[in-house]
Amino acid sequence: MRRAAAGLLLACAAAVFPACAAAQYPDRPLRLVVPQAPGSATDTVARILAPEMARPLGQPVVVENRPGGALTIGIDAVAKAAPDGYTIGMGPIGALAITRHMVAKLPYDIERDLQPVALVARGHLLLAVTPSLPVHSVRELIDYAKKNPGKLVNASSSNGSPGHVAGEMFKAMTGTDIVHVPYKGGAMAINDLIAGHVQVIFESLNSITPYARSGKVRALAVSGPRRSPGFPDLPTVAEAGVAGYEASTWTGIIAPAGLPPAVLAKLNAAVNEAIRSPIFMDRFALIGDEPAGGTPADFAETIRRDSARWAEVIRRSGARID
User: What is the full DSSP assignment across 66-86?
Assistant: First the structure.
């Protein structure tokens, strides 16, 4: 009888413990894994977001950069972490909707091993050229590229990044021959564009905006379906002559699959509160991107929809990561 009672108490304790742990969450700092290098577009968002998330959570959110492997190293670190809410990650469009169609075998399954938490921001890529290039519009860039096949270099922050596939789609839709060169982060690619070592870039606004505003790079167009609030006078690539072109960007927060529902709810609420903070809103107004937010289901649907779209773009362009 006593054994039965003891067993019942242990069973009850086991059932109650996860709920208690979730109720006390978080009681120590969180780790926010960024699958790209410091200074990259995703890193910039993470460093604006982390302190704003820390306020509602009541614990520090520490950014940890894990670049490499065409964004897979950092995402794998999140996928294989304990599902307790203390390791979360930045999930950019490149990692969740693009790279999966360019790498032969990922070390994780995005739907099985990752839990979308909330979409953080939506944005554009800026199509820009080095100022020394005698090009001042998208049409002039296309004409120059056709007259000089294989002589222009498109830099990107990494293989499988939005800048990589946006460039491949641009080439496919315009019939141009532009060489792609991947870098280990957007900062290095932008520096080489400024120096004239490369001539073309498709880069996130939150990385390249200061250089476009200062004239260190020459902005030609934005990649989204509508103009950016940060560059209202700049046309979209489609408006500038490449009908049907669109390469929007986004990034969100992800966690390991199996996260307790109460922990997921706290993280989702913290992200939504953080992106409505005056600091976050002011920083993004300067960048030209837009805070997003929403539920985990909203983010999951965004991943599903854009993954299907980019799969078709990549299939048609033939872009692969060797």
Answer: ---TTTHHHHHHHHTS-SSSS
Encoded amino acid at 114, one letter: L
Q: What is the pLDDT of residue 321?
A: 58
The CA-based diameter of the chain, rounded to the nearest angstrom, is 90
> pLDDT of 252-261, one tens digit each?
999 999 999 9
Alpha helices in the chain (DSSP H): 2-24, 41-57, 72-79, 93, 110-113, 138-147, 162-174, 186-195, 205-214, 261-275, 278-287, 296-317
The two beta strands, 200-204 and 125-129, are: antiparallel
Reference 115, options 73, 74, 79; nearest CA is 79
Q: What is the DSSP string of 263-289?
A: HHHHHHHHHHHHHTSHHHHHHHHHHT-
How many C-beta atoms lie closer than 10 Å to residue 264's C-beta? 19
pLDDT tens digit string along 148-202? 999 999 999 888 788 999 999 999 999 999 999 998 878 899 999 999 999 999 9
**What interhelical angle do 162-174 and 296-317 show, nearest 10?**
40
DSSP summary character for residue 52: H
Q: What torsion, rounded to 10 degrees, do the Cα atoms 254, 260, 263, 265 define?
A: 80
Nearest to 254 by CA among 302, 290, 207: 302
- CB hemisphere CA count around 37 (13 angstroms): 16
Residue written as token pair 């805070």: 291
What are the start-end ranges of the E strands in 124-248?
125-129, 153-156, 179-182, 200-204, 218-222
Of 103, 132, 31, 26, the residue nearest 314 (C-alpha): 103
